[in-house]
Recover the amino acids of this structure.
DNA sequence: TTGTAGGCGTTATCAT
DNA sequence: ATGATAACGCCTACAA
């Protein structure tokens, strides 16, 4: 038989008390008779009482929930979300995750939806389509706490947690150079995204440091996508300036590149080197296994969560923080050429 | 400057109307002067009014949100969740996803948390640890709508959507037999899970149909886990009864098995065949590419979502449905031995 | 230490 | 067609 969940009213009635007393007992406020409190807690336990979060949130104008908006849930991002989750849990917050599926429209809709009193604030990584930040301006006006991570939003006043992408591009490229590769191509991702540009910058920096002249023909901007990478690599390999190594700014692209390389019958790492980015677990399973730049994804997420909580609790004193975490290189067979 | 979001009160005041009139206009109920309505909608638009969901849910005792509880978010399950999402969206529902991380404790906690008026019901796939279903009994008593999918809960009265796992085990095994393999081993997953047993049953059925006698020594029960599968395979390969083919009931296990096979220097598919389960995209990238049983994951999720909505709307007439969807085999190099 | 009463934003019932 | 009012479950001055 259908039984409605118990409320503080029910408890109050059974114990001949007022709802306020019950409310107080349940919330551990002082000023309450220990015995009364014991009785209330016992009955609550017995009835399996659970406070109605809607009512509580409505009253307190606070939901203890963080809205997390991400472009997708690939390996790296879902690890970051786990980090956010952990930080949230420690502070008694819940996390709601929404995927924008890389679509600007869905990003806007999701933000608006969640804003309808469902969340206290946002932790965001933007979609690759997102150029305008109008929908976030609304948040700023209402002083809704917000932290951006991974892919940051240009020109927005908010704390951010990101990877040192330039460093990532740098160490990958320098490693290839140290392994004796000289004509290093880069599959550099969409130009619209900041992470692409930073990794590209790191690539250039490494070349410069080692006095290798930069050749624009070895640069391909393409989508974060295995197929694109495959075709781009095919083209590179059959061009006159055939590279002797490829640095791709994502692992998916690295896989695409590897397929094209195998197709062409080139030996890896002897004839051509390869380094990816993200260090997805499957990379170790390929033959040859693929080197990659690893992000501290979990830590990035956790830090974003912590900063959010911190700023949420200190609404008055909320200075903007910019955390930049360091990547590290994971060297495997695809780039290990003993010289 | 901080500005509180507008409410129907604000609109009512500005237009010198009562809140009830405003509420009606906003909800498209009849009995309202078209012009009044137009005015209200205009102002609402101008103020960027968004109804407060908390208040609405509290009043209506309905949140239009489905709680989805899953053991993890691997490829198959996250595809299923996308299916649920689509069905929910079509019906104006929102989805909240919680991972139990294969932990019984977290499953219980998550269920209780969400139950605190956050969701109208649940769509659930249990964790591998879950044996008791006490925490779901509470839901049943309160007549909270619930649909189970993928991994179902034993002895519970609820609609379910699952794959025909026995059929999956059958077609994988029969395919190997047709390719001339005769000593077919199975890495069969934890015994606690229904899906393990069903796939195992399908395996046995195929052997029987083709008059191959079942050999218990070719059966290994192990965790859904690449490393376990690796070691299990190593053992199988060095035993006297070395199998000439392996059917693993997950792709992760197939990868583990393949690594062990490569380690041993066996040729695939000539000397040993391999078929996995789930058809994760990366399987096509290995050399040799790995055959696998494919589930209609998206469809399973979408159907679970649809059934949920249906039953939620027809609370009176809610008979229990059991949908079983068919798998299909995806044949690749690892099992293609031309005979 | 406990109780009373008002209100969070919305919807629903009953008048007008 | 519109308005007044109570209620959803909870919290919190304020009063007792």
């Amino acid at each position: 038989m259908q039984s409605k969940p118990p409320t503080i009213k029910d408890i109050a009635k059974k114990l001949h008390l007022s709802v306020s007393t019950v409310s107080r007992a349940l919330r551990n406020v002082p000023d309450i008779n220990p015995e009364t409190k014991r009785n209330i807690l016992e009955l609550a336990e017995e009835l399996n009482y659970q406070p109605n979060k809607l009512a509580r949130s409505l009253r307190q104008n606070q939901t203890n929930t963080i809205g997390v908006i991400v472009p997708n849930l690939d390996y790296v991002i879902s690890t970051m979300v786990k980090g956010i989750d952990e930080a949230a849990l420690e502070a008694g917050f819940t996390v709601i995750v929404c995927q924008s599926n890389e679509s600007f429209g869905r990003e806007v809709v999701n933000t608006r939806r969640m804003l309808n009193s469902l969340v206290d604030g946002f932790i965001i990584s933007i979609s690759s389509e997102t150029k305008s930040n109008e929908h976030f301006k609304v948040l700023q006006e209402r002083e809704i706490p917000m932290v951006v991570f991974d892919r940051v939003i240009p020109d927005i006043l908010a704390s951010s947690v990101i990877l040192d992408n330039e460093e990532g591009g740098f160490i990958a490229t320098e490693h290839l150079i140290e392994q004796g590769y000289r004509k290093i191509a880069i599959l550099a991702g969409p130009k619209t995204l900041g992470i692409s540009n930073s990794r590209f910058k790191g690539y250039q920096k490494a070349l410069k440091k080692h006095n290798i002249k930069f050749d624009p023909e070895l640069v391909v901007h393409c989508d974060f996508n295995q197929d694109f990478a495959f075709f781009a690599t095919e083209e590179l390999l059959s061009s006159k300036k055939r590279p002797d190594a490829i640095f791709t700014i994502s692992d998916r692209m690295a896989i695409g590149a590897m397929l094209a390389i195998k197709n062409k019958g080139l030996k890896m790492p002897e004839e051509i080197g390869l380094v990816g980015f993200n260090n997805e677990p499957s990379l170790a399973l390929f033959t040859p296994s693929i080197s990659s730049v690893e992000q501290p994804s979990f830590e990035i997420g956790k830090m974003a969560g912590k900063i959010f909580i911190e700023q949420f609790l200190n609404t008055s004193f909320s200075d903007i923080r910019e955390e930049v975490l360091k990547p590290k290189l994971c060297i495997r067979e695809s780039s290990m050429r003993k010289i």
